[in-house]
Amino acid sequence: MIVADDAGGMWPAINHSPWNGLTLADYVMPFFLFIVGLSLSLTCKKLSCRGVATKNAVLRTLKLLVLGLVLQGGFFHRVNNLTFGVDISQMRLMGILQRIAIAYIVAALCEIWLKRDSNVNSGSSLLRNYQFQWAVALILSILYVILLYGLYVPDWEYQIPIETSLSSPKTFLVKCGVKGDTGPACNAVGMIDRKILGIQHLYRKPVYARTKQCSINSPDYGPLPADAPSWCQAPFDPEGILSSVMAIVTCLIGLHFGHIIVHFKDHRNRILHWLIPSACLLVLGFALDWSGMHLNKALYTFNYMCVTTGAAGVVFVSIYLMVDVWKYRRLGMVFEWMGKHALLIFVLVACNLLPLVLQGFYWKQPHNNILSLFGVRA
Fold first, then answer.
1. Could you tell me the maximum CA-CA distance found in the chain, to the nearest angstrom?
2. How many angstroms separate the CA atoms of 167 and 71, rounded?
3. In this structure, what are the phi and psi dihedrals at residue 117, rounded to the nearest 5 degrees?
4. In angstroms, rounded to a whole number, what is the distance separating the alpha carbons of residues 195 and 192?
5. Could you say which DSSP state residue 325 is in?
6. Which of 28, 180, 328, 367 is most buried when burial is the number of CB atoms within 10 A of its CB?
7. Whole-number Å distance between alpha carbons of 283 and 310
8. What is the pLDDT of residues 187-240, one digit of tens each?
9. What are phi and psi of 360, to 5 degrees?
10. CA distance 253 to 137
11. Rounded to an integer, what distance in angstroms lies between the CA atom of residue 302 and that of residue 58?
12. Using one digit for the tens of pLDDT, what is the confidence trace for 3-15?
């Protein structure tokens, strides 16, 4: 994700898709959520006390939420100008860590309270043992589809301050009046976030600003075309409330993959029980895309969940074969270290703390910082 963020402008194929479609970067978030769920099943393999486990899960969730608000709420903004701080009335409320926290707490509570302790010796007994968790995943998926395609989205408006003028902010009206739309302007995901969170608390650099309608440099950010639609500059949160519902389902599927590790010890059995659901998810996801349900990361559509989670399962099986079956562990030692320190790396690099340090120490002028020694100009 760090590579995609920093080099996506030069290589659009690895940057996030401007709206519909899939790129390399669009697989990262589901892979995070998948491995969170898988790891959770190992952590909760043997619980001495459900109450204590619940307390620990809630505390961990709160830590992630607070850290997410500080790191992605806008506190460390405008790094190149060496400024920081955020107006709480304009703070972004959702973000990557907040989404992970939401998916984690739901999956954790399911794992702590919604599982049986019966013996598992087959695929069918595995499903019976965790049938209530699968029921939660099914209910969430149905709820998401009903809301996305069933909610009516009315016209709405937003304002943009004019920086070079003391006059009132410019107001834009977005015409909708539709139901079931999955375009950038009139989808139910954005409407729910505007109603519940407030438009002032949404992400101000939406991915759809890189579409052809909104950028002359598409698929990169750029100046608005002369005929740009009114919604191009509107805030939109890619980690919003409704889209996080499907993120929870991704985490629950990862939880199921972890259950296979817990209950099956034979390599062949594990791989078989991983590959079958992965293949089914991939086929279902691409079939739905072919039938008209778009793959969309910003909305976290149902078939996007299927394709990316199925791909996560296939990648996981590949790593399992390399490390656990064929014993090529040395090849993955760097990634193992990164996995153990993923949150630290995310905080330092992806959330501007490392750039802040590198640019914050300078000689007489801000542009004479550590980066300038390597020929890098902020």
1. 71
2. 32
3. -110, 25
4. 5
5. I
6. 28
7. 9
8. 999 999 999 999 999 998 899 999 999 999 888 888 999 999 999 999 999 999
9. -80, -20
10. 8
11. 27
12. 666 655 566 667 8
